[in-house]
Amino acid sequence: MTDWKWRLYLAIRAADNTAANRQAWGDIFANNGSGESAENERKMADSAIRLSASGDEPAQVLVASSLVKADMRTPLQTLIGGLTQSLWAVVTNPGGLFIASNVGAGGQVGQPFRLDDALAYLRDTYNLQVIENPS
Amino acid sequence: MSGFLVAQQTRIQVMTPKIEQLPGLKLNVDAMDSGSMFQESARLTRAGIGDPVGGVLQPSGNHASQTVTAAKPTRAIGWNGLPVLSFDGGDYLICDSLAASAGVSGSDKPFTVVAVLKFSAVGAIRQILTFGRAATNNTLRMCGVSSFPAWFFYSVDDADGENGSTGGTPDTSPHVVCFLFSGMTVSILIDGVTVANETVHNLGVNTLDQATIGAQRTFGALTQFMLGVIGQLAVLNRRISNDEAKFATHLFGAKWGIVTL
């Protein structure tokens, strides 16, 4: 049985990708059994999906997904949920069934919820487009 | 005549064909090989189904790794109930020693990539494997570009420009994909069907020191992430023969339940 019981989708404003926030979520991963260093975990936003209202750079919102362990989930939700206009949604792993989100929408409990659904919610609610294929 | 018949015991050894039979194998990421899949980049804890994959042990020494949990692919169940590595659009593995080991660093060096994969969505560039150079745009890229659409073997060198060899049409079905680069020409086989046949591709790229599975790194930035699953990815340091390419295609096709020519 995997210790990684959940997958967390998160969306934050690019402006919130600060050194302090990177350190905070890096510490949550590293201090709760990720097996990697906090310094490395702070690079989480480097591979985030980039979104903007125009669909072009610069990115206004960053979206990432990550498997999380039990001791990571609540502090990550608290951290992300405390940021302005942030979104988190958590699903089962494996299975990808919706459990909850901080906005109370975007999925139905027990129903499949994927990254595409999170991106669709951001598109429909905030008109945010994925910035595709920068060279 | 003797009343005894001495039956000679014959030991029958069944040989299972393996990609390792091809000389020059420098990378073989195989999601079925549970002994090679680890959760951390330090390769301490085995990755089961549903676990992140941060380290892939390689006999060649070209271990693939990812040190950021959010960027680790997940070992999941794919088509036909078989284990795969799932890339969610922000996941990738780094295998920088492969660039030199596979002999791709330096202009016009031959190599081969054989992969079993399935895209989960169309509409963007999905990199399978890229070789690059730190802090520049010098890259060799093997990808599916569903918006074009085509399977691409692409190279760009800041000094010499760019060159693309293309063929076929990517979709969301599982495929055995084979890129054969002689140093001067490219062939691309999809499920054994040749979609690019010895296309002139005379732009090798010099001094490549990065290798990335599932994304490209240019100017130090990560882009064009894989969105889908990879079952197996093999890299050889030579352009294998057409017969060897058939062998590899049939081998992967039979193993992963994909009909090939």
What's the total helix number of chain A?
4
Q: How would you sum up the global shape of chain A?
A: globular
Number of domains of chain A: 1
CATH C-level of chain B: Mainly Beta
The strand order across the widest sheet of chain A is: 5-4-1-3-2-6
What is the 3D shape of chain B? globular
CATH topology description of chain B = Jelly Rolls
Measured between the Cα atoms of the first and last residue of chain A, the distance is 40 Å
Low-confidence stretches of chain B: none
Compute the number of strand runs of chain A: 6
Tally of DSSP helical segments of chain B = 2
Largest sheet of chain A: 6 strands, antiparallel
Helix amount of chain B: under 10%
* Overall number of domains of chain B: 1
Strand content of chain A: 15-25%
> What structural class do you assign from the helix and strand content of chain B?
mainly beta
Instruction: Give the strand content of chain B.
Output: 35-45%
Note the run of SSEs of chain A as H and E: EHHEEHEEHE
Structural notes for this entry:
The complex is a heterodimer of chains A (about 140) and B (about 260). In chain A, strand 4 and strand 5 form a beta hairpin. Chain A has helices spanning about 20-30, 40, 70-80, 115-125, and strands at about 5-15, 50, 60-70, 85-90, 100, 130. Chain A has one domain (about 5-130). In chain A, helix 1 (about 20-30) runs antiparallel to helix 3. The radius of gyration of chain A is 14 Å and the shape is globular. The model of chain A has no long low-confidence stretch (mean pLDDT about 95). Chain A has a six-stranded antiparallel sheet with strand order 5-4-1-3-2-6. By secondary structure, chain A is α+β, with helices and mostly antiparallel strands. Chain A has four helices and six strands, in the order βααββαββαβ. Chain B is mainly beta and about 260 residues long. The mean pLDDT of chain B is about 90.
Describe this structure in a few short sentences.
With 135 residues, chain A is an alpha+beta fold.
